């Protein structure tokens, strides 16, 4: 009988702990499929963040390192410098990458460190129970912005792709989403490209994946995906922000 | 022999370098050596000093607080360290830059117009080496033999062409008669 | 082997290279910047990595990355910078990763000053970051020891799978002395089957991790680690004893304070006072046995420190408060003079406790 569906080799058998409707599972699978497709499982080292994906080290079957909160790009830098022939990726959330780890992110990018960064933006701190993230939308109600994010006192959300695109160095920056089949397929393409770039020695590639958090957003999974479409994507437009190797690029 | 040397002046006068020359020379004579610079936020100007110990026995503290030999290249340094010199010790004074005499009578003072001599010899930056020449002459803390080798180690690779000028300055100091 | 004159900081860097370290990450801070400058010159020529990190925090995490791959890595800094590294050091410990951290101490707290200090003794020997742990802490007192203890630190770190710290000070870092450097200082080789270098599809994946959400498991990890620490304490405590055989007064000092103390002890002996010195070379493990043995024979101990009195607590623990322990100290970048130490020795000899 023909196999029509199977688990990627790059995932272990450990059941994911994520909440119902959370899109981390989809993104894990897309990363794993990219690793499988490119045949790099045996030489890949992944770095898990602090946040909901903290236990990603149990889910990916490649060698894994758990980093301190926000430090994954620095840890990745060490690993890549030590082993230039290995494929190094980080998997980070918005608090990890854009708040406590902003310095590490920006500097790894400006060094064009030859690593792949998967950045999951769900506009909230999930693991600690739904606090305001650097990417929470204006007016968004969270545990630490109970009256809605007030941009006058706490500032505006950080648009990571736009910010990093201001740097000369990075190779590839794209924002995708996983709220529809079409978007998932496109995200798969982008993630694979981010790994391919590293294989080709091109440098820093970051894929921001606009994601959902039904539990902490207080929505049903379907409603959360609708909110991604109606509120998140208009604020965080999808698309390629930087592709240095593209035809016509500088 | 356990000789403690303190060299002091303004930053930029080559105080640290002068100490290094003595240290490298001592090393080539298989002496025990320590060289300790003052370090501060300023790169030029300000005060600089360095402690050098040349000894036949292992060096204890590298900090020279009671020098046997004091070399001063500006007035504040003489004012600050004159009282610290050990009884019977020597002070070497750049008399171009320091107008006053040493007040203590229990130490030997040598006055060398090093900055003026350096200018006249066309090596205005090497007053420090003229002072070192005089120190070698009067104290014998290191010998003049094989100085070129010690200088070759002290001078950075890109300034090896300056060894002759340094030697000339040391010799001028060595031969200077007060 | 020819002796060369080197600054203490340079000796650390060269010894690290000769110990097989090819990955250095740092951030500029006085008075240790020569280490970074030396690495910046040398590493590119030998296929190594010198990277000036965006922060001390990033530097220690880059070290964490290299250490995860099972390779020798180091970072260096001075007191305020080492405070920033504490998070990363705690993670290195939590993952049982070997690495070298150099602290060329300066005065504190806060921005403090840039002159020598030993006031990071507690931070270095009692943990420093969060959680229960120790580092192996080595305290060089000469440029030669800056080199030798760098090699030893890498060796012990690999041997026990734990980070090691070289706790130096601004004086030893800045001074030049003759030093002999063997061509190869890399010592024994250690297998690192735990390292993450890619599975090559031949084994289960390795995980470098310090997260244990099940309390029972985390407790076991801590117990295991402290069993290891007991081994380190049993095997690795190291000190130099100077004129202790017949000493009535025992000075305890490390690093630059020990150098000054030796002068004072020579001066005391010249006056007929039987003074001796115990110079801890490892601060953790602390050479408690040597101190304990002395406690039965001496009138008392003098802890000479460039701090408000930190090591003095370990001396008291080691000698079980059998004899008085007096502090002779200067702080803020000041260094006790031999005369000050001599005075403390004379006071104790004369019965003034």
Report on this structure.
- The complex is a heterotrimer of chains A (250), B (178) and C (353).
- With 250 residues, chain A is of the alpha/beta class.
- Helices cover 38% and strands 17% of the residues of chain A.
- Chain A has a single domain, classed as 3-Layer(aba) Sandwich (Rossmann fold).
- In chain A, the strands form two sheets. A seven-stranded mixed beta sheet of chain A has the order 2-1-3-4-8-7-9, with helices on both faces.
- The longest helix of chain A has 19 residues.
- Chain B contains six helices and six strands, in the order E-H-E-E-E-H-E-E-H-H-H-H.
- With 353 residues, chain C is α/β, with parallel strands linked by helices.
- The longest helix of chain C is centred in the middle third of the chain and has 22 residues.
- Chain C folds into two domains: 211 residues, 3-Layer(aba) Sandwich (Rossmann fold), CATH 3.40.50; 110 residues, Rossmann fold.
- The N and C termini of chain C lie far apart (48 Å).
- Classes of the chains: A alpha/beta (250), B alpha/beta (178), C alpha/beta (353).
- Strand 2 of chain A pairs parallel with strand 9 of chain C, so a sheet runs across the interface.
List the defining traits of the structure above.
heterotrimer, A: about 250 residues, alpha/beta, Rossmann fold, 7-stranded mixed β-sheet, two-stranded antiparallel ribbon, 9 strands, about 15% strand, globular, B: about 180 residues, Pyruvate-ferredoxin Oxidoreductase, domain 3, 6-stranded mixed β-sheet, 6 helices, about 35% helix, about 20% strand
Describe, in short, the structure shown:
The complex is a heterotrimer of chains A (250), B (178) and C (353). Chain A has 10 helices and 9 strands. Chain A is α/β, with parallel strands linked by helices and 250 residues long.
Question: Any chance you could write out the topology, listing elements then pairs?
Answer:
The complex is a heterotrimer of chains A (250), B (178) and C (353).
Chain A: H1 24-38, E1 44-48, H2 56-59, E2 63-66, H3 72-82, E3 87-93, H4 94-100, H5 102-110, E4 116-121, E5 124-125, E6 131-132, H6 151-154, H7 160-165, E7 172-177, H8 181-199, E8 205-210, H9 214-217, H10 221-235, E9 239-243
Parallel strand pairs in A: 1-2, 1-3, 3-4, 4-8, 7-8
Antiparallel strand pairs in A: 5-6, 7-9
Chain B: E1 2-10, H1 15-28, E2 32-37, E3 47-55, E4 69-72, H2 75-81, E5 90-94, E6 108-112, H3 114-120, H4 127-139, H5 147-154, H6 163-175
Parallel strand pairs in B: 1-4, 4-5, 5-6
Antiparallel strand pairs in B: 1-3, 2-3
Chain C: E1 4-7, H1 8-18, E2 23-26, H2 33-42, E3 49-52, H3 56-68, E4 73-77, H4 79-84, H5 86-94, E5 99-105, H6 121-125, E6 136-138, H7 143-160, E7 163-169, H8 170-174, E8 176-179, E9 207-208, H9 215-236, E10 239-242, E11 249-252, H10 255-270, E12 275-280, E13 282-284, H11 288-295, E14 300-305, H12 311-318, E15 325-329, H13 338-349
Parallel strand pairs in C: 2-3, 2-4, 4-5, 5-7, 6-7, 11-12, 11-14, 14-15
Antiparallel strand pairs in C: 1-8, 6-13, 10-12
Helix pairs in contact in C: 1-2, 1-7, 3-5, 10-13, 11-12
């Amino acid at each position: 009988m023909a196999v029509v569906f199977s688990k990627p080799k790059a995932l272990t058998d450990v059941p994911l702990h994520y909440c119902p409707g959370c899109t981390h599972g989809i993104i894990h699978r897309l990363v794993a499929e990219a690793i499988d497709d490119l045949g790099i499982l045996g030489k890949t080292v992944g770095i898990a963040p602090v946040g909901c994906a903290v236990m990603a080290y149990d889910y990916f079957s490649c060698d894994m390192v758990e980093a301190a909160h926000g430090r994954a790009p620095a840890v990745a830098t060490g690993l890549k410098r030590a082993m230039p022939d290995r494929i190094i990726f980080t998997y980070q959330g918005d608090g990890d990458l854009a708040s406590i780890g902003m310095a590490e992110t920006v500097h790894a990018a400006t060094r064009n460190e030859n690593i792949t960064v998967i950045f999951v933006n769900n506009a909230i701190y999930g693991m600690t129970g739904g606090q305001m993230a650097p990417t929470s939308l204006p007016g968004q109600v969270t545990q630490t912005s109970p009256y809605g994010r007030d941009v006058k006192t706490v500032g505006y959300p950080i648009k990571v792709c736009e910010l990093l695109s201001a740097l000369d160095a990075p190779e590839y920056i794209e924002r995708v989403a996983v709220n529809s089949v079409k978007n998932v397929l496109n995200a798969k393409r982008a993630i694979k490209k981010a790994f391919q770039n590293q294989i080709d020695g091109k440098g820093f590639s970051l894929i921001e994946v606009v994601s959902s958090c039904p539990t902490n957003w207080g929505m049903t999974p379907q409603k959360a995906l609708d909110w991604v479409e109606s509120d998140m994507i208009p604020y965080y437009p999808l698309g390629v922000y930087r592709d240095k190797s593209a035809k016509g690029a500088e | 022999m356990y000789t403690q040397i303190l060299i002091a002046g303004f930053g930029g006068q080559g105080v640290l370098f002068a100490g290094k020359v003595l240290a490298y020379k001592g090393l080539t004579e298989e002496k025990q050596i320590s060289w300790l610079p003052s370090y501060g936020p300023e790169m030029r100007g300000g005060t600089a000093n360095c402690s050098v110990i040349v000894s036949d026995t292992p060096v204890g503290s590298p900090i020279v607080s009671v020098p046997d030999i004091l070399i001063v290249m500006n007035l504040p340094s003489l004012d600050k360290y004159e009282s610290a010199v050990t009884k019977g010790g020597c002070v070497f004074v750049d008399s171009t830059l320091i107008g006053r005499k040493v007040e203590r009578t229990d130490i030997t003072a040598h006055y060398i117009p090093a900055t003026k001599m350096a200018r006249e010899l066309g090596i205005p930056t090497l007053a420090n080496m003229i002072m070192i020449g005089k120190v070698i002459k009067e104290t014998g803390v290191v010998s003049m033999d094989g100085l070129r080798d010690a200088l070759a180690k002290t001078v950075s690779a890109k300034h090896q062409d300056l060894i002759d000028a340094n030697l000339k300055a040391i010799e001028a100091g060595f031969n200077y008669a007060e | 082997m020819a002796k060369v004159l080197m600054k203490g900081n340079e000796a650390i860097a060269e010894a690290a290279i000769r110990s097989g370290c090819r990955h250095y990450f740092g951030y500029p801070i006085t008075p240790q910047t020569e280490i970074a400058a030396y690495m910046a010159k040398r590493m590119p020529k030998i296929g190594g990595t010198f990277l000036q990190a965006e922060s001390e925090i990033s530097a220690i995490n880059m070290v964490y990355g290299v250490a995860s791959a099972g390779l020798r890595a180091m970072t260096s800094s001075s007191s305020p910078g080492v405070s920033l590294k504490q998070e990363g050091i705690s993670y290195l410990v939590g993952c049982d990763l070997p690495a070298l951290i150099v602290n060329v101490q300066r005065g504190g707290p806060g921005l403090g000053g840039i002159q020598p200090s030993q006031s990071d003794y507690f931070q270095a020997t009692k943990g420093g970051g969060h959680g229960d742990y120790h580092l192996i802490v080595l305290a060089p007192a000469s440029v030669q020891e800056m080199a030798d203890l760098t090699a030893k630190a890498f060796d012990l770190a690999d041997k026990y799978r734990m980070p090691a710290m070289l706790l130096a000070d601004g004086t030893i870092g800045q001074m030049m002395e003759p030093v002999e450097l063997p061509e190869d200082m890399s010592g024994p080789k250690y297998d690192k089957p735990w390292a993450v270098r890619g599975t090559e599809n031949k084994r289960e994946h390795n995980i470098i991790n310090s997260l244990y959400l099940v309390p029972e498991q985390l407790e076991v990890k801590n117990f295991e680690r402290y069993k290891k620490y007991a081994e380190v304490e049993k095997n690795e405590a190291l000190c130099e004893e100077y004129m202790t055989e017949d000493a009535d007064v025992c000075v305890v000092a490390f690093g630059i304070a020990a150098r000054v103390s030796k002068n004072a002890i020579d001066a005391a002996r010249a006056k007929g006072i039987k003074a001796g010195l115990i110079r801890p070379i490892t601060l953790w493990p602390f050479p408690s046995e040597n101190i304990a043995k002395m406690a039965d024979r001496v009138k008392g101990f003098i802890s000479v420190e460039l701090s408000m009195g930190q090591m003095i607590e370990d001396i008291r623990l080691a000698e079980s408060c059998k004899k008085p322990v007096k502090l002779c100290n200067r702080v803020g970048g000041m260094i006790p003079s031999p005369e000050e130490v001599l005075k403390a020795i004379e006071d104790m000899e004369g019965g003034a406790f």
